[in-house]
Amino acid sequence: MKNDIVIKNARIHNLKNVDVSIPKHKLTVITGVSGSGKSSLAFDTLYEEGKRRYLMFSGTQFMIDNIPTFDSINGLSPTVAVEQRIIRQSNPRSTVGTKIKISAMLSALYANFGERSLEYDNGVPLDIAMFQRNSPRGMCVKCLGKGVAKCLDEDALFADTTQHICDIACELGRRGQTRNMLEELCRNHNMNMWEDRLCDLSDEQIDFLKYGDNGISRFDGFIPWIYMIINGGLGSSGRLAHLLTNADMLQQKVCPKCGGTGLGEQATHTTFGGKTITELEHMYIHDLLAFFEKRSDDKNPLLKEIITKLSCMVDVGLYHLALSRPVPTLSGGEIQRLFLASYIIAEMDSIIFVFDEPTIGLHEVEKENLIKIVHKLVDSGNTVIAVEHDENFMRHADYIIDMGPEAGVRGGVKIYEGGYDEFLKCQTSKTSPYLSNEIGFKIKSDYRPINKDKMLVLSNANIHNLKNVTVHIPLGVMVGVAGVSGSGKSSLISDTLVPKLKELLRTKCVSDDEISETVDACLTGIENMKRCYIIDQRPIGRSRTSCPATYTGIFDRVRTLFAATEQAKECGYTAGLFSVNSEGGCRKCKGDGVVHYHVGFGNFIDVDCEDCGGSGYIPEAMEITLDGKNIREILEMSVDEAKDFFTEKDKVITNILNILKRVGMGYIKLGQATPTISGGESQRIKLAKELSKGKNAKGALYILDEPTTGLSFYDSEKLLDLLNELVEYGNSIIITEHDPYVLSNCDYIIEMGEGGGSDGGEVISHGNPMELKNNPKSIIGRYLK
């Protein structure tokens, strides 16, 4: 027992008084169907208690008095967790280099050993701040360190000379504050914004509309005013940016001043080994390691430290990344391996590490290396606990805990704990039968025929590491795109195909992005499709109060049902009372349900709001009930529970809930805050939202990025059944995938490789799964089922 972490009666969320013993200094995997309670046990119980004890030790736990969610936890040592839902809240300026502290080292290297161009040597000594984009001394003054700028096509804005003044910039002049100021400018210069057309105006009047009149009027002119709006000067800028982009008036381009580096003149004209700091940051990590190893100097400890960190990143499978890669663009698996590298470099011991599916985004070949690294962490005296579904990772675990039997209220029970071999014999688990091949994952044996007359042909793709790739993508089937990390999958699909589809299909292409960079590639065959849905893993919603119910549109109908009750009518309440963002929100916590406190050392804690008791609502809203349930109780329901509750009340709500269940989201709560939702969950919610609109009859293309991320074998099968139904209806699907079970169920596979970074960027094999299994050039072929 002394070598175990012993948890007694864990009961948070759906956990049903779970008792479990986790061996220390071992690798333990917690598995089970999606929503069975894995994260509740690993993160919300074990990790949260470890964090609470640290805060108590540091003297900052004085204000917390929450309801206990377990009886006892013994054997707990310092705990570190890396979970996908926290990862996704990263600073957009954070990069791989800044996260692992190599960027700061490079800045110091250039400040001390850089060679500055004589033309830019102003006599001021180089310092570290000059090589940092987040520093006022180092950032480009035009793009403020971003490297890109939103560029307005001024000629296109005024190209239609038949338009009225009020219709310039997608009718911007008709709205709100702009309307009032534009009317004033027009009065001051003998113009009528409602009746005058651009062709009726003098050149001077056109200039006033473009650039203002030097302060005579409050309106600064359309061009400065639009730039202020799209750069966030008035808060929300999304709608205008979306309209202008669709009208070909707005594009995101490389900053003309710094050339995309984000740095000032001193940094861009200082070199080390003949390379600027930006050139090094854009190199793939394995190439960068080779660059520094050639210049290794025992007398330079800075170089030695940089080489050590880069070597570790290669070991954990991040060789294909560049230091300049923004952290928010990384997958959950990549960011966890980034943290893993930093822990190994720090040579920590006696720590409990809790990981959330660390194999996400890894090719089967790369998983072997990750498993070795994790065991290295264990051998150093640490305990590793991983929430995981991967068969190979589970096989190498020292201990297995299986949660179930199902999701949500039907889960929360410990089904099994013990060794892997005995787990295979567990009769009550929904996971073990897949591992023991007692059930086996359904693998298709016949593939849909390829129609060579209905194909998307993408040619001359050369972004990132792509080497002028030309690829034929068949329509009317399910296409998988495979390859090791950094082989060019995302570059081909997300960074080339998707921008071209947006450019050519315009409003018929549905995605979260408002602005896409133009790409130098050619795409033909779009006449064979009617619409396109880009369904990625970016977060849904951007506020703490957004949730699956608000994103899918369910909540509007729920609020209407509450407002239609006799109780609400008698009190004169409207649907607005049942929104925390409107009149029904608690005044103290602004609808969050919690109050946020800073407790030092950059740590924050959330404490239930005393005024609303954690509901986020004012008392009046909580008094109204719908069949005995108040608004907060509705939001606390899982999709499965809500489906039963609304079956006879609203057909639209029931339809959306049914589709959410089919994409494997039956366990998620309607009111779960979107910042706590993983990338895989976000993608499946987006898919459900689009499918619920009923536009999927025929001819649509769906592009998905690892759609089974976070799903068990059981739930993955259900999602694949739904995707196959879409194809049978006459639609097309492209999925970027690593999972050999999913790829084996595709009709056609395009494999990129053969390595990552500069060793990838080419199509190494293509065809149906059986053809790849028989192709000696294919790497994924040997893992297909």
UniProtKB/TrEMBL annotation:
Q: Does RNA-binding count among this protein's keywords?
A: no
Which cell locations does it reside in?
Cytoplasm
Residues of the ABC transporter domain = 450-779
One term of GO molecular function: ATP binding
Source organism, top-level taxon: Bacteria
**Which InterPro entries does the UniProt record give?**
ABC_transporter-like_ATP-bd, ABC_transporter-like_CS, P-loop_NTPase
Which GO BP terms, alphabetically? DNA repair
Q: Which GO terms describe its cellular component?
A: cytoplasm
Q: Which Gene3D superfamilies match?
A: ABC transporter ATPase domain-like, ABC transporter ATPase like domain, P-loop containing nucleotide triphosphate hydrolases
UniProt KW Oxidoreductase keyword: no
- Where is it chiefly localized? cytoplasm
Instruction: Kindly state which keywords UniProt assigns to this record, in alphabetical order.
Output: ATP-binding, Cytoplasm, DNA damage, DNA excision, DNA repair, DNA-binding, Excision nuclease, Nucleotide-binding, Repeat
Q: Which family does it belong to?
A: Belongs to the ABC transporter superfamily. UvrA family.
- Check the record and name the PANTHER family matching this protein: UVRABC SYSTEM PROTEIN A (PTHR43152)
Name the chain's protein.
UvrABC system protein A
Organism for this UniProt entry: Anaeromicropila herbilytica
